[in-house]
Amino acid sequence: MRVIVVGAGIMGLSVAYNLAIRGAEVIVIEGRYPGSGLSVRAIGGVHSQWSNEHDIRIAKRNRELMERLSGELNFNIPFRQDGYLTVATDKEQLMRLEEDAKLQQSLGIETMVLLSEEIASRYSVLDTSSILGGTFSKDDGSIHPFSLVFGYWDSLKEHGGKLLRPIQVNRLRLDGNRLSAVETDQGGFEADAFVLSAGVGTRKILQSVGLDVATEIMRHEMLVTEPVKSFLKPMIELYPQRFYINQSMRGEIICHMPRSDQKKDVRSTLNFLEDAAAELTRFVPSLRAAKVLRTWAGLVETTPDSEPIAGRIGYDNLWVALGDSGKGIMFAPVIGEMMSEAVMSGEVGADLQPYSPTRKHN
Amino acid sequence: MMGKKIVCFCEDLTEEDILEAIKLGYDDIETLKRYAGFSTGPCQGKTCLMHVLRLLGMEKKLKPSDLQLTTQRQPIDPVRLSVLSGREK
């Protein structure tokens, strides 16, 4: 079976690798360079503190996969399990976190609810004056996004797969009621099945055969400081999904904020730099002297129910994986596994159903 | 023993490290940067990028006009968070 995967982000590469180890002949077509859309812009947080049963089960499976991924891919992919701390600054947020924690615990995740004093005594570097409490899962943490991209790519090559770049995909070619090829600036590529995972470029390709999905673009901005001594163990999220802080293994502080402005490009803004610096120095006062090295931005595709889209769409041999709503890195290993099984067998498994492109959004 | 040719002081990378990465297939400047790690330290490419471009151009037999730069980002020089937050004291 020959499969074309369009887009060499973490999602496309995970699907491609999983197809290759199941015996498919895989060609990945990438418009720029591997990871160039969002994957290498992400800061790599990995956690299981979700609000619904399916996401929690997927996150649990994902963690198992990430724990053995370096060995499986024979590539060093640093996965740090120093814990993931979500903090609440108002009562409503805290109640929601406590409720979510109960569900997570019932599904075998070790989430702990911490009061403000407990957070203060565990992490003395944090100014907890505005924090009411939070949840902590000790086996979560962060993964290095570049290594994940390169690990899948490297292993794909080992299993006979190809990644061609840079090639621009223009449209899909129909032959009766099946897709027969992708048309590119370097000619047509024929295959038995097609997987589109080109991030924000995916919908344009779908539209070439009269299909579409509901996604919106949310801009995120990130910054990184010079390396400082390791002092911030867990990855920290200021609930609700407002602000993320992580210290990398070589000591840089990386932070990440979704932006609510209407801009749709990846240029950095001074506004973000000021907002992020204010939050960082308020929450981790000792960071006042740390210097910012670099800022960047990324476009996240979100869906109405904030769940990824992954499944078959429109034609028997057309599949999409997009709209990961910020869960791309966290769920890519699992979605790659589920999607590849579906593409090979032609049957959509029960665990993939909730991500169907044609589901009713809430 | 031959002397080492350091290309990137921030991340301690030699010419050999870069050539090895290019041979492994990390052979466009953006991918090479993320695999090898040059241009990501405190100098943000001011010391290393031109060396690496020269090596990449030689290995891939590219003309200088075919070489692309990585995206240059703000700030130009490192800035303290206290300055940006307005809490400089």
Keywords, separated by commas or semicolons:
heterodimer, A: 362 residues, alpha+beta, FAD/NAD(P)-binding domain, D-Amino Acid Oxidase, Chain A, domain 2, six-stranded mixed β-sheet, globular, B: 89 residues, mainly alpha, Arc Repressor Mutant, subunit A, 4 helices, 3 strands
Please write out the topology.
The complex is a heterodimer of chains A (362) and B (89).
Chain A lengths: L1 E5 L3 H12 L3 E5 L15 E2 L6 H15 L1 H5 L5 E2 L3 E5 L2 H16 L5 E4 H7 L10 E5 L3 E3 L1 H14 L3 E3 L4 E7 L2 E7 L2 E4 L2 E4 L5 H6 L8 E10 L9 E4 L4 E5 L5 E7 L10 H14 L7 E12 L6 E4 L5 E5 L5 H18 L17
Parallel strand pairs in A: 1-2, 1-13, 2-9, 5-15, 13-20
Antiparallel strand pairs in A: 3-8, 4-8, 5-7, 6-7, 10-11, 11-12, 14-17, 14-18, 15-16, 16-17, 19-20
Chain B lengths: L5 E3 L4 E2 H9 L5 H8 L12 H12 L18 E2 H5 L4
Antiparallel strand pairs in B: 1-2
Helix pairs in contact in B: 1-3
Notes on the protein architecture:
The complex is a heterodimer of chains A (362) and B (89). The model of chain A has no long low-confidence stretch (mean pLDDT 95). Chain A is 30% helix and 28% strand. In chain A, helix 1 (10-21) links the parallel strand 1 and strand 2. Chain A has helices spanning 10-21, 53-67, 69-73, 91-106, 116-122, 145-158, 202-207, 270-283, 328-345, and strands at residues 2-6, 25-29, 45-46, 79-80, 84-88, 112-115, 133-137, 141-143, 162-164, 169-175, 178-184, 187-190, 193-196, 216-225, 235-238, 243-247, 253-259, 291-302, 309-312, 318-322. In chain A, the strands form four sheets. Chain A has an eight-stranded mixed beta sheet with strand order 6-7-5-15-16-17-14-18, with helices on both faces. A six-stranded mixed beta sheet of chain A has the order 9-2-1-13-20-19. In chain A, strands 3-8-4 form a three-stranded antiparallel beta sheet. Chain A folds into two domains: 2-44 and 146-215 and 305-355, FAD/NAD(P)-binding domain; 45-143 and 216-302, D-Amino Acid Oxidase, subunit A, domain 2 (D-Amino Acid Oxidase, Chain A, domain 2, 2-Layer Sandwich). Chain A has 362 residues and is α+β, with helices and mostly antiparallel strands. Chain A contains nine helices and 20 strands. Chain A is globular, with a radius of gyration of 21 Å. In chain B, a hairpin with a 4-residue loop joins strand 1 (6-8) and strand 2 (13-14). Chain B has a single domain, classed as BFD-like [2Fe-2S]-binding domain (Arc Repressor Mutant, subunit A). The termini of chain B are far apart. With 89 residues, chain B is mainly alpha-helical. The model of chain B has no long low-confidence stretch (mean pLDDT 92). Chain A binds chain B through residues 32-36, 40, 146, 149-150, 157, 165, 225-226, 268, 270, 273-274, 276-278, 280-282, 287-296, and chain B through 25-26, 28, 30-31, 34-35, 42, 44, 71, 73-75, 78-87. Strand 18 (291-302) of chain A pairs antiparallel with strand 3 (79-80) of chain B, so a sheet runs across the interface.
